[in-house]
């Protein structure tokens, strides 16, 4: 029996006197599309930071592809995060004076990849996201939906098996939201594991799997997740 791609057990996180996550458990299988929603202040961003190996829990275990992140050293966690995770944010975080091509290429430069393989990877990523003709455009010359798809291409260019999307449609209008969601579902159909944090219950309810964060725990279909 294969292990879950993500396995969180009895996770707790507290800031001051505020208990944000309380004995939270979550299992995600390879190839799932999971939407997590919740009220403002429910702890969605905190959960995403732990899922993304950006901060540790105070209690509990987090297994990512069988690796116990909770017991790993900082350098080991950074390497695991780089290999396993791609991030997409609400505000795109594109560098304004770099073209779409250059923004997508940046993670590969940080990894020390040679120019030839880099060009191939970037071209493939832009083509995959329907942006082959936008490589020379700067972020200010793109629509909101196009800018978010460039951000998704940048997240995927290193070929991570998991995509973490934090409110990816939060700054978009209806048409751009539909465009980005089609992109995310297309990646899911290709086998990418997608975890999306969203405040939009309508988007969450249309997802193959939908969880709500309430009182520090995740609930699915009204019942606590075991």
Describe the protein's topology.
Blueprint: E1 6-15, E2 18-28, E3 33-37, H1 44-51, E4 59-64, E5 67-68, H2 74-84, E6 85-89, H3 100-110, H4 115-128, H5 144-156, E7 162-166, H6 174-189, E8 193-197, H7 201-205, E9 209-214, E10 217-220, E11 223-224
Parallel strand pairs: 3-8, 3-9, 6-7, 7-8
Antiparallel strand pairs: 1-2, 1-4, 4-5, 9-10, 10-11
Helix pairs in contact: 3-4, 3-5, 4-5, 5-6
Describe the structure concisely.
The protein has seven helices and eleven strands. With 226 residues, it is an alpha/beta fold.
Task: Describe what you observe in this structure.
This protein is of the alpha/beta class and 226 residues long. It has a single domain (6-224), classed as Rossmann fold, CATH 3.40.50.300. The protein is 35% helix and 27% strand. It has seven helices and eleven strands. It has helices at residues 44-51, 74-84, 100-110, 115-128, 144-156, 174-189, 201-205, and strands at residues 6-15, 18-28, 33-37, 59-64, 67-68, 85-89, 162-166, 193-197, 209-214, 217-220, 223-224. The strands form two sheets. The chain has a seven-stranded mixed sheet with strand order 6-7-8-3-9-10-11, sandwiched between helices. A four-stranded antiparallel sheet has the order 2-1-4-5, covered by helices on one side. A hairpin with a 2-residue loop joins strand 10 and strand 11. Helix 3 (100-110) crosses helix 4 (115-128) and helix 4 (115-128) crosses helix 5. It is globular, with a radius of gyration of 18 Å.
């Amino acid at each position: 029996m294969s292990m879950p791609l993500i396995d969180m057990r009895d996770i707790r996180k507290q800031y001051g006197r505020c208990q944000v996550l309380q004995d939270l458990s979550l299992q995600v299988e390879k190839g799932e599309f999971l939407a997590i929603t919740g009220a403002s202040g429910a702890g969605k961003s905190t959960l995403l930071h732990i899922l993304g190996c950006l901060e540790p829990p105070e209690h509990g275990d987090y297994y990512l592809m069988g690796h116990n992140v909770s017991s790993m050293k900082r350098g080991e966690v950074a390497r695991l995060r780089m290999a396993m995770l791609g991030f997409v944010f609400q505000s795109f975080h594109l560098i304004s004076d770099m073209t779409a091509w250059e923004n997508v290429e940046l993670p590969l430069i940080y990894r020390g990849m040679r120019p030839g393989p880099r060009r191939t990877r970037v071209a493939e990523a832009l083509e995959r996201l329907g942006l082959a003709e936008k490589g020379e455009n700067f972020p200010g010359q793109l629509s909101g939906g196009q800018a978010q798809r460039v951000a998704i291409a940048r997240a995927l260019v290193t070929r991570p098996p998991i995509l973490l999307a934090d409110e990816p449609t939060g700054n978009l209008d209806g048409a751009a939201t539909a465009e980005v969601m089609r992109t995310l579902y297309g990646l899911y159909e290709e086998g990418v594991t997608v975890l999306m944090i969203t405040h939009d219950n309508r988007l969450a309810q249309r997802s193959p799997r939908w969880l709500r964060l309430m009182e520090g725990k995740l609930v699915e279909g009204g019942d606590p997740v075991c």
